[in-house]
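Thread: "does anyone have the structure for this chain?"

Original post by V.I.:
We have the sequence but no experimental structure in hand. Need at least a predicted one for the grant figures.
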Amino acid sequence: MDAYIQPINLFITVFTILAFVIWIPWLIYTYRKYGFLPLSKMLISFSFIFYFFSALFLVILPLPTIRDTCSMQEPGTQHYSLVPFRFISDIFKNSGMVWTQPGTFIHLFEQTAFYQAFFNFLMLMPFGVYLRYFLKQKKQWKIALGITFVLTLFFEMIQVTGILGYYNCAYRIFDVDDLLLNTLGGIVGFFIAPAVLALFPSKEKIHEKADFLLKLDEVRSLSVLIAVALDLFFTDIATQIFLHYTSVNDVNEFLVRSISLFVFFFVIPIFWNGRTIGTFIMRFRYDSKVSRRTTINRLFKRFAAIYVTFFITFVINVLTTSQISMDSPYYHVSYFLQIGTMILYGIVTIVLFIHIMLVVFGKGKRRFYFDEASDLYTTKK
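Reply from O.Q.:
Generated one for you, tokens below.
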């Protein structure tokens, strides 16, 4: 059992890291396609990624400690098994089952060969469910069968080639029974998928909701948050590039970040009809619904609200990380000052977190403080 649980536990750590890398791009893609973020599609897509890599880890882990795997094996070691249904005889072997004694049948399910065959059957069953979701129609089962067979063949080839030649000898065998059981499990999953997929809304309902929201010209708060996160990301990239060619100190960093924020959150929206790079990616813009001059004034207020947050956190960070010699008469004062700034930083962080949660889960009843302060409106038009 540990041979199956260990790879999954290891991938949980890897997937946590990958999730941060793919989360925002996937949200952007989904939002641009539907105009909102369907929770069902996010769950299905992320669970598919998690499942696929978990299955891959089950195939390749644990890895040998050295690349010269040939030295770890006896000469003439066979790396393949081409006899189909051999797992059946392995289950009956040494099971102690007697046909005339039904009470001994239970011993079949206690064999290692049975567990191995059963888990091989189960491994690609979820894959069949995902295929049914993507292919939709039951009559596409032949395509699902072909895709499942190719995937399990790929897994077996990875094993027999020592991860495509990374190891000089295979450290697991190519087993035709694994090929049959994996494929069978995948196609069974394809046919039982409707019982699972009934828990999620259909693609037709998602498209209907997308059309409805488009007519309402409604921009969700999570989309606004992602747009701000993207703008801050591009601001940080611009800052790091500029600081790379200059001396890095607190003063330079403060000036460069201030200029970057001014450009990305005020200058660009003025010349781009209320759009920032983030809002352009998320397909909306800001407008005052009054006049261009009013829009410019309110865009500046929005920038000022965001800049104040940056200014406070930057000053707190400088005060927290500043070092004063113990011989200085101001050492004790600086000690209490650092403690105070750390507490203040924690308070600011908690307040911002609560504010974001209230807005994101407030069902449109609240707006982010920078939008509320500027009295700007979001529109997809």
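V.I.: this helps a lot. The chain has a mean pLDDT of 79.
O.Q.: and The chain has two domains: 2-204, 217-379.
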